[in-house]
């Protein structure tokens, strides 16, 4: 091998900025940033734009820190799953020790500076969120219970509560229901995905519900959680963050979501393979719109309220 070829290969294996950024799970961070931003603006307390920017930034950094620590611990699983094999650690771009150091440093940074910028309730909720996701979910329960997605979903549901607490210094019915909206959305969202990527979880020996209880049970669980989700989502419309825009969005989307869940529940297992899980994929795509649309409607309501409408 020539020196030029060796140098080229060494450069390709060297971590770039994008590899370190990928540790933070930017797609997940997008959801964290958006829901935290909505929670902050929907709160009935005006926040200085700079303080608000800092709050959302530190919440995002805390979410990214959780992602880095999750990748550090789950690198063995990521290496055998097709959809995660190209992540920085299994791809050989970043070492586990680097990911651990980055995750711990960003966790402390995010919590301390969120507390200094806003209040210590918000900082405490962020610290608990990181602990819950990394220790309770990733290290403890993810590999031993088929309810892993339900439990892990709690960590992703805290950002709007943290944003609300950053603005108000307290927790309210509205912020708890925003938490419930994300918490109850997570299981049907991920179980729909698991129905058509089951082999990934089989190979990684992760006890996803589709692996431990089968597709039929998973379809029933999707329907049950979707019904509960609809009740809480519509109920949120009758709190101080709701209104006609939110209720319209909630009624339409939950009707479509319930329709999709019923279609999944009624699926014939033999037909599922033949149709390449078209119903599940359609439901999964709708779930991506579902949460952003609900929080977007809350954001619109907050804007209308500030304009006196």
Could you name the CATH class of the largest domain?
Mainly Alpha
- Main beta sheet: strand number and arrangement? none
**Tally of strands:** 0
From the 3D coordinates, which CATH architecture of the largest domain would you assign? Orthogonal Bundle
Oligomer: single chain
Shape: flat
Count of individual domains: 2
Q: Work out the helicity level.
A: over 70%
**Hey, roughly how much beta strand do the residues contain?**
under 5%
* Rg over C-alpha atoms, rounded to the nearest angstrom: 21 Å
Helix count, DSSP H or I runs of 4 or more residues: 16
The H-and-E topology, N to C, reads as: HHHHHHHHHHHHHHHH
CATH superfamily annotation of the largest domain: UbiA prenyltransferase
* Average pLDDT rating: 88
Provide the structure class: mainly alpha
Q: Which blocks of ≥5 consecutive residues have pLDDT under 50?
A: 2-11
Distance separating the two termini:
71 Å
CATH fold-level label of the largest domain: Tetracycline Repressor, domain 2
Walkthrough of the structure:
There is one protein chain. The protein has 309 residues and is mainly α. It has 2 domains: 16-169, Orthogonal Bundle (Tetracycline Repressor, domain 2); 172-309. It has 16 helices and no strands. Helix 6 (96-117) packs antiparallel against helix 7 (120-141) and helix 10 runs antiparallel to helix 16. The N and C termini lie far apart (71 Å).
């Amino acid at each position: 091998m020539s020196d030029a070829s060796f140098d080229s290969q060494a450069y390709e294996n060297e971590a770039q900025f994008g590899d370190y950024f990928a540790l933070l799970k930017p797609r997940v961070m997008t959801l964290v940033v958006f829901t935290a931003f909505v929670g902050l603006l929907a709160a009935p307390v005006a926040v200085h734009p700079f303080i608000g920017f800092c709050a959302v930034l530190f919440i995002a950094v805390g979410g990214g820190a959780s992602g880095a620590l999750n990748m550090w611990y789950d690198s063995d699983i990521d290496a055998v799953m097709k959809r995660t094999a190209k992540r920085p650690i299994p791809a050989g771009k970043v070492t586990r020790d680097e990911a651990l150091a980055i995750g711990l440093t960003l966790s402390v940074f995010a919590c301390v500076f969120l507390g200094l910028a806003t209040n210590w309730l918000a900082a405490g909720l962020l610290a608990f969120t990181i602990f819950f996701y990394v220790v309770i979910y990733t290290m403890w329960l993810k590999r031993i219970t088929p309810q892993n997605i339900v439990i892990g979903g709690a960590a992703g549901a805290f950002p709007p509560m943290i944003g609300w607490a950053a603005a108000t210094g307290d927790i309210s019915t509205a912020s708890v229901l925003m938490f419930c909206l994300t918490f109850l959305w997570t299981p049907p969202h991920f179980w729909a995905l698991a129905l058509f990527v089951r082999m990934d979880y089989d190979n990684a020996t992760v006890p996803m519900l589709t692996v431990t209880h089968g597709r039929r049970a998973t379809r029933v669980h999707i329907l049950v959680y979707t019904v509960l989700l609809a009740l809480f989502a519509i109920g949120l419309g009758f709190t101080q963050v709701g209104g006609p825009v939110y209720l319209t969005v909630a009624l339409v989307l939950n009707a479509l979501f319930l329709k999709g869940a019923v279609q999944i529940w009624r699926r014939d297992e033999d037909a599922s393979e033949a149709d390449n899980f078209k119903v599940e994929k359609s439901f999964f795509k709708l779930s991506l719109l579902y949460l952003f649309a609900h929080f977007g409607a809350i954001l619109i309501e907050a804007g209308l309220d500030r304009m006196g409408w």
